[in-house]
Amino acid sequence: MTRVALRPAINQAVETLRSAGVHSPQADAEHLAAHLLGVDRTRLVLTPLVAPELLEDYRALVDRRAQRIPLQHLTGTAAIGEIELAVGPGVFVPRPETELLFAWALAQLETLPHDHTPVVVDLCTGSGALALAIAQARPDADVHAIEIDPAALQWARRNADLRIAEGDTPITLYADDVTDPNLLTEFNGEVDLVVANPPYIPEGAELDPEVADHDPHLALFGGPDGLDVIRRMTPTITRLLRPGGSCAIEHDDTNGSDLAALLAEHGDFTDIVEHPDLAGKPRFVAATRA
Ligand SMILES: C[S@@+](CC[C@H](N)C(=O)[O-])C[C@H]1O[C@@H](n2cnc3c(N)ncnc32)[C@H](O)[C@@H]1O
Questions:
Q1: 72 in a domain, yes or no?
Q2: Whose CA is closest to atom 12 on ligand 1?
Q3: pTM, rounded to two decimals
């Protein structure tokens, strides 16, 4: 059967995506081709020729991406740490920024005595991203994850099952509200680490179509200043952490010092540190329970 060159189709896709306003046209064009071929993007050069039908499928996929459907909804996966998660409509797509919080969390767990089973709580788990990445990296940890949105929770359950099939330690998922004073009361003062990537975008912020039209709004907006959910879940974090336990909360780049001030005013935290992302913008605040 005649095979056709892939590279010209990729080059054309880059131009189509650039014209549509996609921020990373080269990377996305290559990711979509790699997805169809079932190979890693770095190995595309090893497949210079493909079946003509594959190019038809490729152009259809590129057209959908040009309509600003998120790349991860088209490939069906998003990565965090060492794991891949299933994602799609109804759940927030995990972002690369959250890798920094994840790396901080692992470093934090390293400081605990090695004969101690770390208790970890992921507030606002979405697809299960942080909880499952931590469970994969630290099979000894007892990980609990909370999500209020039934659609997102379905994705988290699916991902949790996929990770169990890969041999990871199961996590415990809860359909609950992170601001509820009765949440996980059995763990009051027992938790070593709380991680949270809550909804934190200030209402009215301008968003790309991939975000505004495809991420659930419950996952995005945190009231007028972006801190609504964070403000209301701070008592939960304080209540759950043991003295000396730590937390990290991701936030909008416009309110790093506001969140640090919020935790300082609360009075029960020490070592409140703002952490920047790779672009140097404030991205998460970490603190220790006094
Ligand atoms: C920004 S997404 C983050 C998801 C995941 N942690 C990640 O990093 O990909 C925030 C998640 O918090 C959930 N959420 C919003 N308000 C909540 C609440 N009060 N209690 C529990 N979950 C909540 C949303 O449904 C959404 O899945």
A1: no
A2: 124
A3: 0.97
